[in-house]
Amino acid sequence: DYTDANQLPMVKKLMEVYLSEPYPVYTYTYFLNMWPKLCLLAMDGPKCIGAIVSKSSVQKKNGQLKGYIAMLAVEEEYRRLGIGRKLVQLTIDRMREEKIVDCGLETETTNVAALRLYESFGFVRDKRLNSYYLNGNDAFRPVSYTHLTLPTSDL
Fold first, then answer.
1. What is the reported pTM?
2. φ, ψ at 76 (rounded to 5°)
3. What pLDDT sits at residue 155?
């Protein structure tokens, strides 16, 4: 779990290495301080080897809570060990506890591993966003329309 501001530099560094979008420190501070229960870290001793940064908000159309996964990254040498999957599962579990009814995110169309990971949780490709990222890449907006259809954690 994200517990205090001393962890912010570790999360920021990890995301800067593995995500194509540069985010100002304010973005990290905003997410981590407003939704610490939805921001999870995977640690190997003192080293942050994976993190997921998420939030919730009230939908204007129906007043229900909607989740959003903003960032997910795992150190390259720790990939294919189930760390990303565990971070997503724990986030979904926490969203369920908070009565969040659906969840959105964006991922680059070229990030096949991320697309497969999210689709394995029941996310579907809702929309293609042309030139969404600063590097010019398109994004898919996978959305899980209801957590009731997502698998519960058995980890």
1. 0.87
2. -55, -45
3. 41
Distance CA 58, CA 42 (A): 28
Contact of 1 with 57, CB cutoff 8 Å: no
Q: Which of 83, 56, 60 is nearest to 72 (CA)?
A: 83
Quick one: tokens of 13?
A: 């560094």
Helix axes 112-120, 83-97, angle to 10 degrees: 40
3-state helix, strand, coil in the chain (%, to 5): 35, 30, 30
Cβ atoms 147, 103 nearer than 8 A:
yes
pLDDT digits (tens, 9 = 90+) for 102-148: 888 988 888 999 999 998 988 888 888 888 787 888 888 876 655 43
- 55 touches 113 (CB < 8 A): no
Q: What DSSP designation does 76 have?
A: G
Structure tokens at 136: 């010019």
Neighbours of 49 (CB within 10 A): 20
CA 138/CA 154 separation, integer angstroms: 34
Do residues 13 and 49 touch, judged by C-beta distance below 8 A?
no
